[in-house]
C-alpha cells in the first residue's frame, strides 16, 4: 500500500516521485532538511502553520539555518529579500489561521531567476484544487492527516517533486529514518477514493456558513479565500479550482472569557486543531501578533477559525447561533459588572 499511495499522489500532483512520512510536520522537516544545511538561508511566509514557524526558530536556527519571515502578500517583491545563500522560499496558501492567498507564480518566477527552490505546504487545497507544479512549485508538501485521510484516524505526510529533486529528497529522508506504516497508507488510499466528493460537501457547507457569518453583527469580516474580504482572493480565483471547509472570521470585539463562553457548550463543533475530517472544529485566537514577525495585524477583535465538517449545515448554524448568544451574554455581563465597579 505504501508504493500504491506514492503512485497515486504522483498521479494526482503530476509529480515524478513522492516520499511518505509519518505526519505532516515530519514531511515539512524532511523536505527542508533535504535541501538546506548549515550556513543556508530560507524565506518563509509569515502566516505559516505555527509548528513550521517553531521548527525554524527552535531547530533550524540551532543547525545554522537562518530563516527570514516575509509578508505573504509580497508577490514578485520577494526578489528583494533573496540573499546569496537563500536555498528555499517556503509558501503556504492559504496561510494557516489568517488565510492569505499568496501569488505563487510571481514568487516562483523570482525564485527561479535566482536559482532558489519553491517549497509549498499545499494541505488546504489538496492536489484536486491546486496543481502546485503547474504554478512553479518545486516541492509540494501535504499533511495527509487532513483531507487526504479524511476520517481523523491516521497520520500522514507526503512530499512530491519532479525527477531532478527526488533523489536528494530520498537520500536525506531515508537517512533520517522517515517511513510510513502500511496500515496508515491503506487508510490514506481509502480516503483518496472519496476525496473529491468530500471536498465538494465541505466546500458547500463552508460557503453556506461563511455567508451566514457575513450577516452577523458581531463579525468584522470573513477570511474565506472565495470571499473578496480575504487577502489574495484574486489569486485564489486565478489559480485554484475550489475551496473546502476551513476558514476564519474576525470579531469586532471580545475578550478571552467571551470567546471561551462562545466555544464551551457547542453541540456539534468540537475544539481541536487537526481539521480535515468529517467533524466540525472551532478555535479562537487572541493576539495574532505572536504568530507574526514580518507583518502587523490591524484587526482589534479576536479571530475564530472554523473547520466545517460533513454535518447538516443548518445544525451547525444553529450551534453557532447559540454560541453567539453565550458570547454576547458574557460581554454584557462583564460590561454591567464593570459599570457597577466604576459606580462604587
Automatic annotation (TrEMBL):
Its EC number(s): 4.4.1.8
Cofactor: pyridoxal 5'-phosphate
SUPFAM superfamilies: PLP-dependent transferases
Keywords: Lyase, Pyridoxal phosphate
Substrates-to-products reaction catalysed: L,L-cystathionine + H2O = L-homocysteine + pyruvate + NH4(+); an S-substituted L-cysteine + H2O = a thiol + pyruvate + NH4(+)
GO MF annotation list: cysteine-S-conjugate beta-lyase activity; pyridoxal phosphate binding
Protein's GO biological process: L-cysteine catabolic process to pyruvate; transsulfuration
Pathway info: Amino-acid biosynthesis; L-methionine biosynthesis via de novo pathway; L-homocysteine from L-cystathionine: step 1/1
Enzyme class: lyase
Family statement: Belongs to the trans-sulfuration enzymes family.
The protein's name in its UniProt record: Cystathionine beta-lyase
Lineage of origin: unclassified sequences, metagenomes, ecological metagenomes
Amino acid at each position: 500500500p505504501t508504493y500504491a499511495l506514492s503512485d497515486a499522489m504522483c498521479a494526482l500532483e503530476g509529480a515524478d516521485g513522492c516520499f511518505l512520512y509519518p505526519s505532516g510536520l515530519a514531511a515539512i522537516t524532511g523536505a527542508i532538511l533535504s535541501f538546506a544545511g548549515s550556513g543556508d538561508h530560507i524565506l518563509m511566509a509569515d502566516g505559516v502553520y505555527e509548528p513550521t514557524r517553531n521548527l525554524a526558530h527552535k531547530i533550524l536556527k540551532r543547525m545554522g539555518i537562518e530563516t527570514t519571515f516575509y509578508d505573504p502578500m509580497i508577490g514578485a517583491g520577494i526578489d528583494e529579500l533573496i540573499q546569496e545563500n537563500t536555498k528555499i522560499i517556503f509558501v503556504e496558501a492559504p496561510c494557516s489561521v489568517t488565510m492569505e492567498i499568496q501569488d505563487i507564480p510571481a514568487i516562483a518566477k523570482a525564485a527561479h531567476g535566482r536559482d532558489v527552490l519553491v517549497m509549498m505546504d499545499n494541505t488546504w487545497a489538496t492536489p484536486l484544487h491546486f496543481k502546485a507544479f503547474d504554478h512553479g512549485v518545486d516541492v509540494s508538501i501535504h499533511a495527509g492527516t487532513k483531507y487526504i485521510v479524511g476520517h481523523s484516524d491516521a497520520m500522514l505526510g507526503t512530499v512530491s517533486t519532479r525527477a531532478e529533486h527526488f533523489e536528494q529528497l530520498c537520500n536525506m529522508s531515508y537517512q533520517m529514518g522517515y517511513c510510513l506504516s502500511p496500515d496508515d497508507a491503506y487508510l490514506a488510499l481509502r480516503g483518496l477514493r472519496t476525496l473529491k466528493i468530500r471536498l465538494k460537501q465541505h466546500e458547500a457547507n463552508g460557503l453556506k456558513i461563511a455567508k451566514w457569518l457575513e450577516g452577523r453583527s458581531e463579525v468584522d469580516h470573513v477570511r474565506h479565500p472565495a470571499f473578496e474580504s480575504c487577502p489574495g482572493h484574486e489569486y485564489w480565483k486565478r489559480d485554484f479550482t475550489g475551496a473546502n471547509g476551513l476558514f476564519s472570521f474576525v470579531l469586532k470585539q471580545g475578550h478571552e472569557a467571551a470567546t471561551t463562553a462562545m466555544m464551551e457548550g457547542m453541540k456539534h463543533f468540537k475544539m481541536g486543531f487537526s481539521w480535515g475530517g468529517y467533524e466540525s472544529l472551532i478555535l479562537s485566537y487572541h493576539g495574532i501578533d505572536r504568530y507574526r514577525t514580518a507583518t502587523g495585524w490591524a484587526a482589534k477583535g479576536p479571530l475564530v477559525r472554523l473547520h466545517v465538517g460533513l454535518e447538516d449545515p443548518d445544525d451547525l448554524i444553529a450551534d453557532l447561533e447559540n454560541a453567539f448568544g453565550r458570547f454576547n451574554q458574557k460581554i454584557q455581563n462583564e460590561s454591567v459588572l464593570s459599570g457597577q465597579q466604576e459606580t462604587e
